[in-house]
Specification:
Elements (H helix, E strand, L loop, with lengths): L2 H20 L13 E8 L13 E7 L6 H9 L3 E3 L9 E7 L5 E3 L1 E7 L8 E6 L12 E3 L4 E3 L2 E3 L11
């Protein structure tokens, strides 16, 4: 009678080993390749063109839809319809940027270089340049980022001729 519990234990142990050997856990399988937005920002007039004010942050921001008001900017962030770069250097002649685009494919209808020039994270922003194939900041160009793609967008910032700003 003592053989029976040992047989049951060995059978259970064998089944656990077989199950564990065949189980791959929560393996998601092959992940899609990363997608990036990248390019160069050139500042017209170089280092001397930068404003004398304190600059808190410079970013490249990709919006799925063009915000026309500050409220629409905030709504875009709340809906996760925005992707932003890491902070970029200020007071330079030019800088390169590159940031990953989550959940591609994604379409962005408004891609900008933005600067925060005050302590208020919600209010102190200026659009420095808008991506437009025609060069007209009133007519931004659409950017499509497919799975595994690196999309290159270059910007020219002219502090004496900033694009139209979203209104309050």
């Amino acid at each position: 009678m003592k053989k029976m519990p040992i047989v049951i234990m060995l059978t259970c142990l064998f089944e656990i080993m077989v199950f564990a050997a065949g189980c791959t856990g929560l393996d998601p399988g092959d992940l899609p390749p990363d997608s990036y937005l990248e390019g160069t920002i050139t500042y017209s007039g170089g280092v001397d063109a930068w404003p004398d004010t304190t600059i808190y942050q410079v970013l490249v921001i990709a919006f799925e839809n063009q915000p026309l008001t500050r409220d629409e900017i905030f709504e875009s962030f709340q809906k996760s319809e925005v992707v932003i770069s890491e902070s970029l250097p200020d007071s330079v002649e030019s800088t390169e940027y590159r940031f990953r685009i989550p959940s591609p494919p994604r379409t962005f209808n408004y891609v900008v270089v933005a600067m925060r020039d005050g302590p208020n994270l919600l209010e102190d922003w200026k659009m420095l340049s808008v991506y437009s194939k025609t060069g007209d900041p009133v007519a931004p160009s659409q950017v499509v980022v497919d799975v595994g793609s690196d999309v290159s967008i270059d910007f020219l910032v002219d502090f004496d001729n900033l694009p139209p700003q979203p209104v309050p």
